[in-house]
Amino acid sequence: MADSPGLPSYSDVQNAQRARSELKQNFVTLTNDQLDIQALFKSVAAQLESTPEIGERHPLVDEWNELRQRHRKVYRDSQQNAGLCAHFLKNFADILVPLSQSGQISMDQKRQMIGKFLETIPVHLNAARENAENFSELGKAVEVFPLKVASALRVRAEPAGFFESVWTGIEELCMSIWNSLNRLLMKIVNSFKIMLARLEKLRFSCFGVSLDIHFHRYHSLEMQDNMHEMTPRQVVGEITEDAKAIAEKLTAFESAWHVVRLACSLLMSDLALAKSFTTCTPPVPQACDSNLRAAALVHTPLVDCLNAYSMGKSPDFF
């Protein structure tokens, strides 16, 4: 039995469900990923600035801030593209498909409308491709950044020779011993000061002469920031982990925009096929409408995802 002209086929419903599942996997975590990326960028910036060998005015700090600003721009631009693409797909589902099925327009008008939509799709397809590439390139730049930090700190993951390896180990051992001794000395001094402060006053008497010595109450100061607590190799290790996490989360954005690009490519194929049914002799309006209806069913969930993305929210999936 043939499907009713106004109802989607079972195959169309299955395709829509697969599309919804794929979109859920690619878009549902992006909001949290964006928050994590911002926090990780901030964490690396703080580590760079608190490392004595680098500090706030080092070129690496400026380079990292440039990557941070670049990420913000790439994300904002992608949000704008998402809003425009969502608007386009919504017009396709809410305007072209209903008009095509209404019988109020001629076959020639239907062909012209499909043609207009076909002309616009490449704009969104290219924007999706550019967004995916931008996130990919940014991820690569972030991933190699720790190597520059290692170079600046003269840390080598694999020393060039035996003596360099030994010297690096000696440097780290000496730094570790110094940090331990420094902490121990500070604790002894602080304990001694606290003990004297608790006495508040000492009185010495000799042959009827008294001498009072007053101690001001000692308030323990917070230890200076632990910029000397970590060896250069440890600093590089933490920055490497944070950079790796950023790159992995940027890959999620790249994948999401690949899905958008593929969706635009599929829509272009669907519209081209629908248009072909209006130009054949004789035209086949039922085949044209069926093709448009199936395309709308598959791409409707993408509208919700893109709208949510453009507003920095997670899409709702029921």
Helical fraction equals over 70%
Q: Report the sheet-strand fraction.
A: under 5%
Q: Largest beta sheet: what is the strand line-up?
A: 1-2
The secondary-structure class comes to: mainly alpha
**Mean model confidence by pLDDT:** 79
Count of helical stretches: 7
Largest sheet: 2 strands, antiparallel
Q: What Rg, in angstroms, do the CA atoms define?
A: 33 Å
The count of strands amounts to 2
Shape: elongated
**Strand-and-helix sequence, N→C?**
HHHHHEEHH
Unreliable sequence segments = 1-5, 155-160, 218-228
| End-to-end gap | 31 Å
Structural write-up:
The chain has seven helices and two strands, in the order H-H-H-H-H-E-E-H-H. The chain is mostly helical. A two-stranded antiparallel ribbon has the order 1-2. A hairpin with a 2-residue loop joins strand 1 and strand 2 (209-214).
Gist of the model:
By secondary structure, the protein is mainly α.
Key descriptive features of the protein:
318 residues; mainly alpha; two-stranded antiparallel ribbon; 2 strands
What topology does this entry show?
Layout: H1 10-27, H2 30-50, H3 59-102, H4 107-152, H5 162-199, E1 201-206, E2 209-214, H6 232-279, H7 285-310
Antiparallel strand pairs: 1-2
Helix pairs in contact: 1-6, 1-7, 2-3, 2-6, 3-4, 3-7, 4-6, 6-7
